[in-house]
Write a structure and sequence with these properties.
Layout lengths: L9 E2 L2 H7 L5 E6 L11 H12 L3 E6 L21 H15 L11 E4 L1 H4 L4 H7 L6 H6 L1 H7 L5 H4 L1 H16 L1 E7 L3 H15 L4 E5 L12 E2 L2 E2 L9 H9 L6 H8 L4 H7 L4 H20 L1 H15 L44 E4 L1 H6 L1 E2 H7 L6 H9 L3 E3 L2 E2 L6 E2 L8 E6 L3 E7 L1
Parallel strand pairs: 2-3, 2-5, 3-4, 5-6, 9-15
Antiparallel strand pairs: 1-6, 7-8, 10-13, 11-12, 11-14, 14-15
Length: 435
């Protein structure tokens, strides 16, 4: 199942892992609480656990409240900034809430743990005697995560990270019966070290699966935009911005991302591979709605869709891709017809609550604000000069009216329902309201 959808890069043995998964299996993935939110780059492990649950297995989401105090050197060129225990605990609490949107936690369903519960209680000398003696320094130095850092400097505290992650696997094997660890491709060395520790200490067999690094077809790192990371926290990346990130997916990535980041059945994903033009654009709408409702709930996904519809017009849903979910069903027709809601038309009067908003005073609008200054204030251009060029090149709009002169005064005459809608180019919108 994971392999068919594109999740698997490497395993400790394809046949052995398949055999393991013929019965209910406890599997775990670690999540690093170095920020108060996960981002789109974390969706691969999150969705992997969600798919495992849907296929009858028992996921363990492990928040690294203990290991975050040490820092994972894997894939890093320099040591991470050290966080305080209070910062790590607050981040861990936020991440737990986000994971609960994708995975059903409860008796017999899934487990949410924080490794601070056991790592902070470890005695240093007993840990070295019981765990450290099983690790070869030569082998650790030869691992990719250490080898890449030796030139720039590897701290002793980071050098211990592999021991702590390996101990996590051993602890979960003992307490949760967990014998499968999954993670990003940069975690292969740490996963194998944990498997070896379980073999040495418990004389038992465990397995590992790693995921590929996901990039767009253009070669860009997944989840990066001009504004920075695309966060799962609606306070950092609004549901509307999140929806727009996905609806603007490169044509070449639509089917692949639908397989990875949604629960759309694979036979329907297969039909997307053959789509072109308008049908492919409609499939992007399905992709955007599906991923947004997973991260932010169906109501926010509806709102983001409706606002996008108001701004960009209607995209019919192609007959080849009509995914079902427990929450909603997308239907063919003029726009979406959501379960329990009325059909939305392109001319619907929809509040733009998710579009980024800036406020100006009533006095400012009475006097008038030069268009290029207003676009700069709104963040639709990086500077006054850039805003001027945007307008001179025909890319500046006020309430869908093209601005002909860069310093034209925008006044309260432009207010509609106490707001002004600015647009830069085809897709960048910003709302101005009176405070």
């Amino acid at each position: 199942m994971l392999m068919e959808r594109g999740f698997v890069e490497q395993t400790t043995g394809d046949e052995a892992v398949r055999e393991l998964l013929t019965k209910q299996t406890a599997c775990y993935i670690g999540f690093d609480p170095t920020a108060s939110s996960l981002h789109v780059g974390s969706l691969i492990p999150i969705m992997a656990l969600a798919h495992m649950q849907r296929n009858g297995h028992r996921p363990i989401a492990l928040v690294g409240g203990g290991t975050a105090l040490v820092g994972d050197p894997s894939g890093k060129t320099e040591m991470r900034q050290m966080l305080t225990l209070d910062e790590v605990n607050q981040n861990a609490k936020c991440i737990k809430e986000q994971l609960g949107r994708f995975i059903e936690f409860g008796e017999g369903r899934a487990v949410l743990l924080n490794n601070a519960e056991w790592l902070l209680e470890l005695g240093y000398i007993p840990f070295l005697r019981d765990i450290g003696r099983h690790f070869s320094v030569n082998r650790m130095l030869a691992s990719e995560s250490c080898r890449l850092r030796l030139e720039t400097g590897l701290s002793f505290i980071e050098f211990n990270y592999a021991l702590l992650q390996s101990y996590d696997f051993l602890y979960l094997y003992r307490t949760q019966g967990c014998c499968l660890q999954m993670g990003g491709s940069d975690q292969w060395g740490n996963i194998v070290a944990g498997i070896d520790l379980i073999r040495r200490v418990e004389q038992a067999t465990a397995h590992g699966v790693t995921f590929p690094l996901i990039t767009t077809s253009s070669g860009a790192k997944m989840g990066k935009t001009a504004k920075g990371a695309v966060w799962l926290d609606g306070g950092r990346t609004s549901p509307y911005e999140y929806y727009q990130y996905w609806v603007n997916t490169d044509d070449r990535d639509v089917a692949r991302f639908m397989a990875l980041f949604t629960f759309v059945p694979m036979d329907e994903v297969g039909s997307v591979k053959e789509m072109q033009g308008a049908d492919l654009n409609s499939a992007k709408t399905v992709l955007a709605f599906e991923v947004t409702q997973l991260a932010h709930g169906v109501e926010e996904a509806k709102k983001a869709y409706e606002e996008s519809l108001r701004l960009f017009g209607c995209r019919d849903i192609p007959k080849g891709i009509v995914p079902s979910s427990a929450v909603h069903r997308l239907k063919v027709g003029k726009g979406f017809e959501m379960a329990g809601t009325s059909q939305v038309s392109p001319t619907a009067d929809i509040a733009l609550s998710a579009v980024e908003t800036s406020a100006v005073t009533e006095e400012q609008l009475k006097i008038g604000i030069p268009a290029f200054k207003l676009f700069h204030i709104a963040g639709l251009a990086g500077s006054g000069g850039a805003a001027r060029r945007l307008i001179e090149q025909g890319g500046g709009y006020v309430n869908d009216r093209r601005i002909e002169v860069f310093d034209a005064l925008i006044t309260d005459n432009e207010l509609k329902n106490n707001e002004i809608l600015l647009r830069a180019g085809k897709k960048k919108y910003h709302r101005i309201v009176v405070r």
